[in-house]
Structure formats: structure tokens, C-alpha cells
Design a protein that fits this description.
Helices cover about 45% and strands about 15% of the residues. With about 450 residues, the protein is α/β, with parallel strands linked by helices. The chain folds into 3 domains: about 15-80, Arc Repressor Mutant, subunit A (Orthogonal Bundle), CATH 1.10.10.10; about 90-110 and about 350-455, Aspartate Aminotransferase, domain 1, CATH 3.90.1150.10; about 135-350, Type I PLP-dependent aspartate aminotransferase-like (Major domain) (Aspartate Aminotransferase, domain 2, 3-Layer(aba) Sandwich). The protein has a 7-stranded mixed sheet with strand order 3-11-10-9-8-4-5, sandwiched between helices. Helix 11 links the parallel strand 8 and strand 9 (about 265-270). Helix 5 packs across helix 14 (about 335-345) and helix 15 packs parallel to helix 17. It is globular, with a radius of gyration of 22 Å.
Length: about 450
């Protein structure tokens, strides 16, 4: 990327500003909002934008370089490197970085071997053409059929003419928003939403109106009010195991949201990243309203992040041609190689076996959370693999994240997800990066101990 339009969300109330800027940069990299190669604003530009001294920004950039987050290029500027080196003590202490929301690694050598064997078999089944030829932007007919089979438990039988294979959920969102909304127009999303959605909207100069939430998720009445006030083109939402709050919308709320969307002619983009995880899922919005819903189902959270494959189902009565054109313009196509891997795994049952292993491991890790962290501060779902941790009154999110980072634990503060201000005093913990239950428990013990401390007692200046 060459864009420089980045502004950190910081508070001038507590702690050195240069550290707050460096911490915000680290948070946005961890959340995926800033990616490798992103050019940061010139130091004087950012200083003017934030209304602070130039030297403060200079110190912040120097601190970020020290952490391995950015690099300076002579005559070109400062660029994100997105390298997240492991803590030097992690191998000894078992402390882990919990900022990335990865599916938990399961301990099943036979299944892991089957995954690799499936990849090896592509040589004989597809030959050199798989590596040396382009494919159509929406995926081959075989890849689309595999996608329809994967989605059938949640959406029922799907006409493959309505299904497109996209280069990951992020690529799908870029294509969708670019095709459905114009610069300056407004879309709605939960008040706390996927950082990748915010990044795409910012890139496309689309305004995001945040919709109020409660413990059960998006509030239908707030959505209705936003429809009257903003006349949005789209409602983007994650109705199942919401990121970051873990909330799952009830069937009644989903039906009410669909009714409001119909009444105000609003299209729905349903991000179903975690939809495959529940054993007994609530009906998808695309099943309740197939005529107005674009359904995006990536494989990163429920099978393997490395695949970068997402299945997109367009509303009834529409073809994928307009969306395929947007994919072609922005990414060319989904990788034929990873699409073929996904198809092989779906066809041979490997993907479903991996999903079952992830479900089992997620429940075990959530059980560890329930034993260590105080229940009154935790919002979680036993079928998910992240936790929304609401901080006690004596902590603010930036200080809490900074103290954890000094202990080798990365978390993501609410600022990364905030479509509206102010962001709540909360952080997201990803449970999947820990290589073992012991390392997860060790990290959670550190988190629990810090929660019990007063902010001023958690560090010492000499």
C-alpha cells in the first residue's frame, strides 16, 4: 500500500504520548488494519493532524522502529513492516501473544498429515495447469460446487450461479463495498466491528455509521433509527460469534433486522466468518432473507487461515457477474492453488474434520478461561475462540494493553474495532495462538493478576 491516511486513536490523558502513538500503531498492525508496506503519514503531517509537537511523533516513530513495527526508507518515508517478533522470554515462560484471533491448533497428527497429503495429491489430479494458468475471477465450477456443499448446512441448497470464490473475506469485502456503495455514501455496521471493514470503508471513502449494541449484539431499534437518519446503502454485520464481543444474535433479532432492512431498502452483507463453529447455529441472515443478503463465509477461522479463500453468495435474482468484475479489478482472482486445496479438503471430508477438531479445542480453551479470569469481566461463548474482556474501573485500555505488552502478551484494545466514539474500556483476547493449554493458562494468569492490580501499582519508575 502507498496510502498515508492513518490517524491513531489515542488519549492525551495518561502516559507519554509518544508511547500511546506507538501502542496504537502496534494495535492497528495486530488487528490487520495496517498491513505490510503501508506508508505512514510524514511526521510533521501527523503532528499537525493530532495537534502535538513534531518531536513527539518523531519519538513515536523511533519507538515503533525499535519494536520492529516500521522501517524508514531514505527519501520515501516510514513503512509498516508488520513483523511481530516473539518475546524473548516466551519460549521459557510460556507467555504468548493473544492479539491475533487465530483458530486454535489441535493435537491430531493424523489429521495434520491428511491435510498435507491432500495438498500433495493436487499434483496428480490437476497437473501443471494448476500452477501455470489463470482461472476465471469467480472460481471454477468445481470450486463453486465445493463452496455450495460447505455452506449447505447453514444455507441449504444453493444455486452455484449465485456463488463466487473470493480471495479471502477481506478481498470479498473490498469487492462488495466497491460494487455496492459509492464514495461519500453511508453504510451501517455494529458500533464495534471488524477492523478490516473499517479499513476498506476508509480506503473507499465510505462513511460507516455505528449501530448501538448490547450483550446480545446489534440492537434492532438502533438500526431502525440509523436507517431513518442516514439512509444507508448496506448493513454490514457479524451475527454469529461477533468479533470482538462474541455475541450471537437471536433468531428474533435477526428476523426484526431483516424486516427493518426490507422496509428501508437496505442490502445486508453478512460476514459469517465464525458461522461454521456452532454445532446448532441460528438461521443465517442469508437463509432468512436470501433476496437482500450477500453472505460472506471465509475459511480462515473455521479451517485454515493460510487458505485465504472465501465463498460469497449473492442475493436471489442477481448473478455474480458484477461482483466477479469487482474481484477482477481489485485482486484478479482467488488463488487457483489455495482454491483447489479448499475444494479437495471439502470434497474428501478433511475440512469437516478440521472444523470438528477446532470446535473441540475451542471449548477446551474456553474452559481454561472460565477457571482463571473473573466471570463478571468476561464476555465469551464456549464455541468461539476469543474473549471480550471488560476492564474494571481502575484500568484504562491503553495502560492495560501496554502493561501486558511489557510482559510479552499482546491484546487488541477496543479502539481497533470502534465505528463510533467513545470506545469502551475493553480488550480482545485471542485464544488460538497458544501452542498448548499450559501456555494459554500461563498467559491468562498474568492477565488475571494484572486485572487485580491498581494501574499505578503495575509499574515502577526509578
Amino acid at each position: 500500500m502507498t496510502t498515508t491516511n492513518w490517524s491513531p486513536s489515542i488519549s492525551k490523558a495518561g502516559g507519554p504520548l509518544y508511547l500511546a502513538i506507538a501502542d496504537a500503531l502496534a494495535t492497528d498492525i495486530a488487528s490487520g488494519r495496517l498491513t505490510d508496506g503501508f506508508r505512514l503519514p510524514p511526521q510533521r503531517t501527523l503532528a499537525d493532524q493530532l495537534g502535538i509537537d513534531f518531536t513527539t511523533v518523531s519519538r513515536a516513530y523511533a519507538e515503533a522502529r525499535k519494536r520492529g513495527l516500521v522501517e524508514g526508507r531514505v527519501g520515501q518515508g516510514t513503512y509498516v513492516t508488520a513483523r511481530r517478533p516473539a518475546s524473548a522470554g516466551s519460549a521459557v515462560t510460556g507467555i504468548i501473544d493473544m492479539s491475533m484471533n487465530l483458530p486454535p491448533r489441535f493435537d491430531d497428527p493424523d489429521l495434520a498429515a491428511a491435510m498435507w497429503d491432500g495438498i500433495a495429491q493436487l499434483q496428480s489430479s490437476h497437473g501443471l495447469d494448476l500452477l501455470m494458468r489463470y482461472q476465471e475471477a469467480g472460481g471454477t465450477s468445481r470450486d463453486r460446487a465445493a463452496g455450495a456443499a460447505w455452506l449447505a448446512p447453514r444455507l441449504g441448497e444453493i444455486d452455484t450461479g449465485r456463488l463466487l470464490v473470493a480471495p479471502g473475506a477481506q478481498g470479498a469485502l473490498l469487492a462488495l463495498l466497491g460494487a455496492l456503495a459509492a464514495p461519500g455514501e453511508t453504510i451501517c455496521a455494529e458500533a464495534l466491528t471488524y477492523p478490516g471493514l473499517l479499513a476498506v470503508a476508509q480506503h473507499l471513502r465510505i462513511h460507516v455509521a455505528g449501530i448501538a449494541m448490547d450483550a446480545q449484539g446489534l440492537i434492532p431499534e438502533a438500526f431502525e433509527e440509523a436507517c431513518r437518519k442516514h439512509a444507508p446503502k448496506i448493513l454490514y454485520c457479524t451475527p454469529t460469534l461477533h468479533n470482538p464481543t462474541t455475541a450471537t444474535l437471536s433468531l428474533a433479532r435477526r428476523e426484526r433486522i431483516v424486516s427493518i432492512a426490507r422496509q428501508h431498502n437496505v442490502l445486508i452483507v453478512e460476514d459469517d466468518a465464525y458461522g461454521a463453529l456452532p454445532a446448532k447455529p441460528v438461521a443465517a441472515l442469508a437463509a432468512l432473507a436470501p433476496d437482500i443478503t450477500y453472505h460472506v463465509a471465509g475459511l480462515a477461522k473455521c479451517v485454515a487461515p493460510a487458505l485465504r479463500v472465501a465463498y460469497v453468495v449473492v442475493p436471489q435474482g442477481r448473478t455474480v457477474a458484477h461482483l466477479a468484475g469487482a474481484v477482477r479489478a481489485t485482486a484478479g482472482m482467488a488463488s487457483p492453488l489455495t482454491s483447489a486445496v479448499a475444494t479437495h479438503w471439502v470434497e474428501n471430508g478433511i475440512a469437516h474434520s478440521v472444523l470438528a477438531a477446532i470446535r473441540t479445542e475451542a471449548k477446551q480453551r474456553q474452559a481454561i478461561v472460565s477457571k482463571i479470569l473473573p466471570a463478571k469481566l468476561v464476555q465469551a461463548d464456549p464455541e468461539g475462540f476469543h474473549v471480550w474482556l471488560k476492564l474494571p474501573g481502575h484500568w484504562n485500555r491503553s495502560d492495560f494493553a501496554a502493561r501486558l505488552r511489557s510482559a510479552g502478551i499482546g491484546v487488541v484494545t477496543s479502539d481497533a474495532f470502534a465505528a463510533t466514539e467513545p470506545a469502551p474500556e475493553a480488550v480482545r483476547l485471542g485464544l488460538g495462538a497458544a501452542p498448548s493449554h499450559a501456555s494459554l493458562a500461563a498467559s491468562l494468569e498474568v492477565v488475571a493478576a494484572l486485572l487485580a492490580q491498581q494501574s499505578a501499582m503495575s509499574s515502577m519508575v526509578v
